[in-house]
Amino acid sequence: MAEPAYTVASDSETTGEEKSSSAFPEIAIGIDIGTSQCSVAVWNGSQVELLKNTRNQKLMRSYVTFKDDIPSGGTLDIGVRPFIAALVNNVWRSTTPEEVLAIFLVELRVMAESQLKRPIRNVVLSIPVSFSRFQLTRIERACAMAGLHVLRLMPEPTAVALLYAQQQQQMIHDNMGSGSEKIALIFNMGAGYCDAAVTATAGGVSQIKALAGIATGGEDFLQNMMRHLLPNFDNLFSSRGINEIKSMGLLR
């Protein structure tokens, strides 16, 4: 699987008349929703800037909790379970993964709008390489429910390749590097997915030569390690005098 070439815009290309055409120029945010953590970023004209939440965090946990009848930012699992159930006022209520993801995306959009002080309607999302067309469609549907227009669903290694191309371009501008083609291996392992790509970068243009990914990540390694250690579970924690839940937490 190969991706087309991407060009990193220069500063002059991002500071044209379109910036002064209205009081609130239309911009897009980038969202990376991982299995365990997520982040929101914006291009500020010279580099990618990560936005912070109200707790001054750039990395946020990927979950939505339901308390009474007001949901707020269990774990997102797109395309795996048909629904997610929550106990609301002693009544079980089911909802689709798209609805849960939409709630989460609304929180991220509001956070971005608060910091950037302008309405946000466009988004670029990074996705695992192994996502199916069915999963991508459900993500697009969740974005629509959250009032976001998807400009692109970008494989995560492609996003890294763009950043690498921008860094190489800056080095050339600062006379610290050459414009010759550079081949790089990009490896990205998250909690739930693992992606790899081979890129060729020259003159601010990055081209994906090869792209692959599997639905295996750090959480899978963690679970396998726990299964390996569980036969000795009692020996590991019997002397600590703590309950089983805390013991499992220590084991993780």
From TrEMBL:
Region of interest called Disordered, as start-end residue ranges on this chain: 1-21
Top-level taxon: Eukaryota
Record flagged with keyword Cell wall biogenesis/degradation: no
Entries under InterPro entries matching the protein: ATPase_NBD, Hsp_70_fam
GO molecular function: ATP binding; ATP-dependent protein folding chaperone
Keywords: ATP-binding, Nucleotide-binding
SUPFAM superfamilies, per the entry: Actin-like ATPase domain
Protein name: Heat shock protein 70
